[in-house]
């Protein structure tokens, strides 16, 4: 059983963490390049948020949104 867990540890340390090790080494020379993936994720999240807000505004303008207290079935149950 010990070999199984050591194999998992070896897989993560020797294979799956290689990209993170490369980013750690890159950070020494360029902070911006090392964090480019983070900036990409933040950009995707921001665009998704803007799209979501646009859709909410569209539903609100068309009066399609139910705003009464019993809009969800679980709220009306006693």
Automatic annotation (TrEMBL):
* UniProtKB keywords: Membrane, Transmembrane, Transmembrane helix
A Pfam family of the record is: DUF6341
Source domain of life is Bacteria
Which InterPro entries does this entry report, sorted A to Z? DUF6341
Q: What is the protein's given name?
A: Uracil phosphoribosyltransferase
So where does this one cross the membrane? 36-53
